[in-house]
Amino acid sequence: MNGPAHAEIERFHGAAMELADEARRIVVAAVAAGYQIRTKADASVVTEVDQAVERRLRELIARWFPDHGVVGEEYAPTRPDSAFQWILDPIDGTEEFVHGVPTFGTMLALQHHGAALVGVIDHPALDVRVNAAAGHGAYRNGSRIRLADAPADLRPEAVRLVLSARLNFTRQVDEGHLFEALTRTYPNHRIYRAAYAHTAVVSGAADVMVDMHNHVWDLAPARILVEEAGGRYAVVRDFPASDGDRLISAVFGRPAVVDRVLALFG
Amino acid sequence: MNGPAHAEIERFHGAAMELADEARRIVVAAVAAGYQIRTKADASVVTEVDQAVERRLRELIARWFPDHGVVGEEYAPTRPDSAFQWILDPIDGTEEFVHGVPTFGTMLALQHHGAALVGVIDHPALDVRVNAAAGHGAYRNGSRIRLADAPADLRPEAVRLVLSARLNFTRQVDEGHLFEALTRTYPNHRIYRAAYAHTAVVSGAADVMVDMHNHVWDLAPARILVEEAGGRYAVVRDFPASDGDRLISAVFGRPAVVDRVLALFG
User: Fold this and answer.
1) Architecture of the domain defined by B156-265
2) Which residue does chain A place closest to B170, by CA atoms?
3) Which of A166, A184, A205 has the CB atom closest to B187's CB atom?
4) Would you call B179 and A183 a contact, using CB atoms and an 8 Å cutoff?
5) Which among B101, B158, B184 is the nearest to A166, CB-wise?
6) Which of A44, A115, A239, B50 is the most buried (most CB within 10 A)?
7) What are phi and psi of A187, to 5 degrees?
């Protein structure tokens, strides 16, 4: 199918940046004023800030693009039949957020028939944002990102791997053996939650991310960000979750390193 | 033996804070101006900033406390027979520093006959500092830290574990099995380099740190910071390293969680 024209994508990109600005304003104000925290049914934490951000972004999207659908972490999908879908994670890394660890972030993407047109990850506490739009490139705080590939013979100890915590590897399907294989083969790794892990890889601060058994809103911006930066993105798992949702796994980053890591997935 | 008097410790504490201020000024200026990076014999990276910070701190220590010794990551020890030893890691997380990941930090401690009197970890890019002095309490950006203990029956998935990368667990002695045991038992973990990992645990943003086979300058501030914050610190390994140095391993954080994690060390 034909995608939207260049100028229309640029308009969506600008709207996504405004949504990220608005999310950041709400987060910064909430940190200054204080906020309520509660525990969800799955024992994860959520705050009134997560909810306030998602409600406000949904309100703006409904006003600007009344025919677009929205999928978000905190509320039920709207207009699921629309070709255009906004995918929102108002605060990824809520555990980090509530404990003052500054790596949490807002993740948002616009998909057209399932293909991402725009992706943004914004870190209010770090004053860092990565953003990309199809055909328009990827940027970190406004500077164009062009990922250099890694040498194919990089020593395994020199590969800078970022991965999900082992909890993700055993979510729904037990693939803990992959956590072991990855951490043994590439022992110089870091573990962050999705938002900062993705920002690190997109901006070249790490070579490759293995994100396992995660929700669509955790992964929606990554593909367009990585591909527009010159990297490679590969989905390695995609299966239905017990809650009716899907759980997706992806490997992405510098092409030569992604290819090596993919070999571990058999 | 008798330790220094309360007022003298407070004077050392003030000096350590001035050293951290000076380190931060050098780091901030270098980030603005740019700097040279090179690879060390052990394949790790070092920058002229690491070296400039350590040289400047050694110069100030020699001026203020001419009879004190200094042990630092980048230069040979001075006055090794002094009862007072300053332990310096000018930039911990140099890999993070060179790639713009803001979790790097300056670590410094003053020991008297091997017992820490003062500890500071400073994160210039995050504007975060933790500091403590014996009998004076622990602080995060000037606010007193009083760690609440964790409930003894906290579900393993709810324990917020921070640990070293697997590379550390196999340094000199292969204890990779402990990495596996820890990550299986406490699957909701994060991996950061020492400086930020320690700051997170000291300030209550994580429950427990397992720092494996690391140098004295990576661990020197942690004990006094954690103990003054109301936490527990236990050395689990201490052996000679092939370079003539020592490699130390420690578990520290909220007492009830530290006790549970120690059980995995047999």
Assistant:
1) 3-Layer(aba) Sandwich (3.40)
2) A187
3) A166
4) yes
5) B184
6) B50
7) -75, -10
> What is the per-residue pLDDT for A1?
54
**Alpha carbon of B166: minimum distance to chain A alpha carbons (Å):** 5
ipTM: 0.94
**For B69-121, how does the pLDDT look when each residue is reduced to its tens digit (9 = 90+)?**
999 999 999 999 999 999 999 999 999 999 999 999 999 999 999 999 999 99
Radius of gyration for the alpha carbons in chain B, expressed in angstroms and rounded = 18
d(CA B139, nearest CA chain A) in Å: 15
Over residues B2-10, the mean pLDDT reads 90
Predicted local confidence at residue A11, as pLDDT: 97
CB B157 within 8 A of CB A167: yes
Residues near A100 by Cβ (< 8 Å), separated by ≥ 6?
B203, B205
Tell me the C-alpha to C-alpha distance, in Å, between residue A257 and each of A148, A182, A229: 11, 12, 15
| pLDDT bucket at B133, cuts 50 / 70 / 90 | very high
What is the number of residues in chain A?
266
Those residues of chain A that have pLDDT short of 50 are: none
Radius of gyration (Cα) for chain A, nearest Å? 18
Which pLDDT score is estimated for A242?
A: 84
Q: Which residues contact B122 (CB under 8 A, 6 or more apart)?
A: B20, B23, B24, B105, B106, B128, B129
Domain boundaries, chain A: 6-145, 156-265
Q: For residue B95, give the chain A residue with the closest CA.
A: A205
* Dist CA B104 CA B97 (whole Å): 6
Q: Which residues of A touch B200 (CB under 8 A)?
A: 99, 101
The predicted structure's pLDDT at residue A40: 81
The chain B residue lying nearest A205, using CA atoms, is B99
Q: What is the pTM of this model?
A: 0.96
Q: In whole angstroms, what is the distance from residue B109 CA to residue B16 CA?
A: 8
Structure-block tokens of residue B193: 């380099």
Here the tokens at position B259 are 């006790």
| Residue B247 scores a pLDDT above 90 | yes
Asked if B157's CB is within 8 angstroms of A167's CB, the reply is yes
d(Cα A168, Cα A103) in Å, to the nearest integer?
18
Q: pLDDT tens-digit profile of B24-49?
A: 999 999 999 999 999 887 778 899 99
State the Cα–Cα distance between residues A237 and A250, nearest whole angstrom.
7
Spell out which chain B residues touch chain A, with contact meaning CB-CB distance below 8 angstroms: 43, 95-96, 99-102, 126, 155, 157-158, 160, 165-167, 170, 176, 179-180, 183-184, 187-192, 200, 203-206
Exposed e or buried b per residue across A57-93, where buried means at least 16 C-beta atoms within 10 angstroms of its C-beta: bbebbeeebeebbbbbbbeeebbeebebbbbbbbbbb
Instruction: Name the CATH architecture for the domain at A6-145.
Output: 2-Layer Sandwich (3.30)
